[in-house]
Structure formats: structure tokens, C-alpha cells
Amino acid sequence: MVKHRWGGTDAQASVVEAARPGPGPARGHSAGPGRLQTGGQSASHGATGPGGLPSAHDVCGCGADGGTGVSTRLRLNLVGTFTVSQDGRTWPATKVGSRKARRILALLAVERGRLVSLHRVVEALWDQAPPRRSAENVATLVSRLRTTLDPEVIAGGRTGYRLGPAVGVDVYQAGDLVTRAERMLSGHQPVSAASAARRAVDLLTTAEVLEDEPDALWAEPARRLQGDLLRRARHAAAEAALRTGDLTSAQAAGEAALRTDPLDEIACRLVMRAHTKAGDTARALAVYQRLREALAEELGVDPARATRDLHMEILLIP
Questions:
Q1: For residue range 60-118, what is the model confidence (pLDDT) as tens digits?
Q2: Which of 181, 21, 216 shows the shortest CA–CA distance to 110?
Q3: How many of the other CB atoms lie within 10 Å of CB of 44?
Q4: How far is CA 163 from CA 18, 45, 48, 62, 273, in A?
């Protein structure tokens, strides 16, 4: 039997790593989300995303409208083609507004809760060739969106705009679920953690962020955030599955993370543990060997101490 002195290590490491933003990949881990944060504790992005998705509301406990009067069931969806949904139904794009109006909503959704300057809005709409009365044009577009959706869907004025605090954004709701899953793991509630992690993975894996805006540089923070959240969600899902004895799901979640990033050492350890618990130490050792070779080739380094220690524990199994 494998000694479980490393039990919980990878979940804790994932939480710590998630809390530390990074400018780029380091030691085989995906880049952090940078300035974008998730979860209800984010001071820079305002209120936690509301429960526009019933399942997310049930798991997250995402709250009410905070007295704003805006329906908490209104959600902006960044994953895939940008859409607006309410009560589980998607608004036809033409009913929401023009393409430029929808782009304003998408930009504010990416920056959820942050004030976006008028200059940035104009740049996103017209790039380097804005009309003479661009500020008035933006104000007109915003006014139409408020009339169509809700007066408080967009806050702000001529100095800049921000998304109303009670409007949900799918990527950030997924972030709430990931935070929930990590917190449940820390609280020794793996069944709840597994449920939250699975819901986050489902939200994040349907498509890339803003596929209808492939060249939009302003969408890059949300794309990076999607990748970081998906990595954390898969780590949490694998750890939760390990703790509940669902080794097949643990292997699947860990291997999905490794397919995205072959240098992901947390995912590697999770897969190694899953194979070892299943009695297949040969496969566990093979996973380690692939990681070791990839790290040597790509970065010229050895696996981290935690990964090497786990490898040694498996080698010592009779």
C-alpha cells in the first residue's frame, strides 16, 4: 500500500498556486490569470457573479441582486460566441442590439466590475478610426442597451462604463465554482468539491472565449482566465475523485489537464496517485517518466521535489 503522507498536497498546492498570479509559465504550470480575479472576495471586480445559471446558483450560493433591482438571472456568456441569456433562454442577437452594442457588453463582461474608460470602449468599437462624435455614439449604444435589457445593466457615463453588479458572467461563475471546489477540499468535503468542479469544467470546456472576436486583444485576459480556471477545476476534480475512490474520474480529469499542459506537475502527481491506488504502478511510473523527459527537453530542469518524492514512494512499493 502507498503511504498517504502526500494526501491533500496537490489540492493545497493548487489553491496556493491559484492565489499567486504569474506573468508566465513556470516550472511546468500554466500562466496565472494576471490582473483578473474570480470569486466573491475580489475587490477589483466588484460583486460576485449572480446565479444566472441555476446549477451554478445552487452550488455557489451566488446571491441576490444586492438591491439593485437588476434580475440576477441575466447572464452574459463569453465562452463560445457572445450571447445574452435570461432564465435559461438565449436572447436573439438582433434583439440585444447591434454588433457594436453587443461588443460593449462583451468588453464590460471581460472586465466585470472594473471601470472601462471611454477611450478603451471607443478603441474596441472603432480601432484607429473612430467617428468624430464617438462619445455620443457610445452613449447612444449604452442607452439602447439599458432600454432593451435593464436600466442598471451598465453603470457609468462619459468617463467610463462598468457592468452592473448583479449581471452574471459565465466565466466568473465558473471561477466561483472552482473556488468553491477548492474550499470544499480544504474542508474535507470531497463530494461537494467534485460536484462544483464538474460544473466548472462543463462551463469552461464547451468552446473558446469569444470565438466571434478572434482578433480582439481586449478579450485576451478572459481567454487566459478560462485556461487557468479550467486547469484548477481539473485539479480539484481529480483530487476530489481520488478522495471518494472514483479512480477512473481522477485519471480522466488529471489526464485532461496533462493533454492541455504536458508540464503540469500537479496533474502529473494526481494521475500517478490514481494509477497507484488502482494497483497499476507501472503506469504511474510511466507518467512520471514522460513528465521528466518533457521537462528536461522543454526547460532543462528536473521535476519538482514533491513529484520526485512521490516517484520514490511508488518505487518502494513491494
A1: 333 333 333 444 479 999 999 999 999 889 999 999 999 999 999 999 999 988 999 99
A2: 216
A3: 11
A4: 25, 10, 12, 17, 43
Cell of 266: 500537479
Backbone angles phi, psi at 144, to 5 degrees: -65, -40
91 DSSP assignment:
P
Cβ atoms of 74 and 41 closer than 8 Å? no
Q: For the chain, first and last CA: distance in Å?
A: 8
Span 188-247, pLDDT tens digits:
999 999 999 999 999 999 999 999 999 999 999 999 999 999 999 999 999 999 999 999
For residues 159 and 116, the answer to whether their CB atoms sit within 8 Å is no
Angle, CA 40 vertex, CA 38 and CA 43 arms, to 5°: 80
DSSP string, 201-260: HHHHSSS-BTTT-TT-GGGHHHHHHHHHHHHHHHHHHHHHHHHHT-HHHHHHHHHHHHHH
Partners of 12 in the β-ladder: none
Question: Which residues, at least 6 apart from 303, have a Cβ–Cβ distance to it below 8 Å?
Answer: 265, 268, 288, 291, 292, 295, 311
Give me the domains of the chain, ranges plus CATH numbers.
1-29+246-318 (1.25.40.10), 33-244 (1.10.10.10)
Nearest to 206 by CA among 103, 105, 77: 77
φ, ψ of residue 208 to 5 degrees: the values are: -80, 160
Please answer whether residues 47 and 177 qualify as being in contact, where contact means their C-beta atoms are separated by less than 8 angstroms.
no
- The helix/strand count (H/E) of the chain reads as 13, 7
For cell 503506469, the residue is: 283
Contacts of 289 (CB under 8 A, 6+ apart): none
Phi, psi angle pair for 84, to nearest 5°: -115, 130
